[in-house]
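Please decode residue identities from the backbone states below.
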């Protein structure tokens, strides 16, 4: 089926669309959508293909014209060319003219057949793990800077002054491998927490829960869906975050900050906590993770969705391209760092504090007490301790996890539906 002889589904077989300007054939050199099956494309665009393909062929493969015109193609893959169709020839994916327009910002939500479903859980976890591999050294620095000077006045020695100096100090005192300390629990935490968080948010997005009935994105709905998804993910992954914090805080005596738990590894740490404190000990600190992740998720995912819509409407980058996700993620990370840092500081300290024989915290009684104690001893800026490290970690992690998530979903939409 060539671009110039495209038939509208459900209409008169003789009806044809006019060929777009500069019609020509072009071989698509993508990763897998070769031969007779093109990937889905963004609404309002039509790819130019070198292989003829009938409507019957596409219907047999389960996508049809619907997938080609309303799906989510990976526009960032090489060899792709597309022609803009007139508005009257755009379809919503159900054989009817589209009710939305990309320029007006009223384009319909994600196609339920290409987004959401059980795969969003796996894709969300894999995306977060990929980001974690690259940003874990910054997580180590962030954790230590937030524990530095805990409940002490500002005067005094500080082994970590800024991010670059902290990275060098850790590598010098503990060895370069210490920059990846706690990587195993960090990866499992990302898989559990973000798999649930991004997966549940993806399901809500696919179901249209994040948009108004007219198709426009709803910021409050995005925030509520993201916060609820984040809370569920935080509770599920809390034991792994507890162990991760303990291990990442461990260091040589000359640069040690916070309480030193002296774990030998993730499995040994989980076993030791289980034996000493029981199941409740594994979830100690989860109360601080709930507001932390709820605020972070609501800020991250809602600002990412909003920024992505704005960038799409501005048409600065190719529609659906990786540049759109990158720009949206960079904008999102600024808001996340500012909104989340006070909760992150409190969460880190509650997780890392020493405990008594009955499992009670020896420094803080809970979230409110940690907030109050930190402000009394260190001032209001104590809640923003490590803000720079927080951004340098959250910024890349936000960009990478959401970028990977966005593109993995597009790849799944293209290849996974066969």
């Amino acid at each position: 089926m060539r671009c110039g002889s495209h038939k509208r589904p459900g209409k008169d077989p003789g009806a044809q669309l006019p060929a777009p300007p500069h019609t020509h054939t072009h071989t698509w050199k993508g990763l897998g959508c070769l031969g007779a099956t093109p990937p889905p494309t963004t609404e309002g665009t039509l790819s130019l293909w070198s292989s003829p393909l009938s409507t019957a062929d596409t219907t047999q493969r389960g996508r049809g014209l619907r997938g080609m015109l309303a799906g989510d193609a990976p526009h960032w893959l090489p060899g792709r060319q597309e022609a803009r169709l007139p508005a009257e020839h755009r379809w919503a994916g159900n054989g009817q003219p589209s009710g939305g327009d990309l320029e007006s910002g009223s384009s319909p939500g994600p196609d339920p057949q290409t987004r959401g479903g059980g795969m969003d859980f796996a894709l969300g976890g894999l995306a977060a793990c990929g980001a974690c591999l690259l940003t874990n050294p910054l997580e180590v620095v962030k954790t230590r800077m937030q524990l530095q000077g805990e409940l002490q006045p500002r005067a005094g020695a500080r082994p970590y002054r800024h991010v670059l100096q902290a990275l060098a100090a850790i590598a010098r005192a503990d060895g370069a491998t210490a920059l990846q300390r706690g990587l195993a629990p960090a990866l499992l935490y990302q898989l559990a927490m973000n798999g649930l968080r991004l997966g549940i948010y993806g399901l809500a997005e696919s179901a249209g829960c994040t948009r108004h009935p007219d198709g426009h994105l709803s910021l409050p709905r995005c925030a509520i869906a993201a916060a609820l998804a984040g809370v569920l993910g935080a509770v599920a992954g809390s034991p792994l975050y507890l162990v991760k914090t303990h291990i990442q805080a461990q260091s040589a005596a000359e640069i040690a900050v916070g309480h030193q738990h002296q774990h030998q590894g993730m499995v040994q740490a989980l076993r030791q906590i289980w034996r000493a404190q029981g199941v409740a000990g594994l979830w100690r600190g989860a109360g601080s993770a709930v507001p932390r992740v709820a605020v972070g998720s609501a800020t991250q995912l809602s600002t990412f969705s909003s920024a992505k819509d704005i960038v799409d409407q501005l048409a600065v980058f190719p529609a659906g391209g990786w540049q759109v996700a990158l720009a949206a993620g960079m904008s999102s990370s600024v808001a996340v760092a500012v909104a989340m840092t006070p909760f992150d500081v409190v969460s880190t300290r509650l997780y890392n504090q020493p405990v008594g024989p009955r499992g009670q915290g020896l420094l803080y009684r809970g979230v409110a007490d940690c907030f109050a104690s930190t402000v009394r001893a260190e001032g209001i800026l104590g809640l923003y301790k490590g803000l720079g490290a927080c951004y340098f970690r959250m910024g890349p992690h936000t960009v990478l996890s959401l970028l990977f998530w966005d593109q993995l979903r597009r790849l799944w939409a293209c290849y996974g539906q066969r």
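Observation: The two ends are 19 Å apart (CA to CA).
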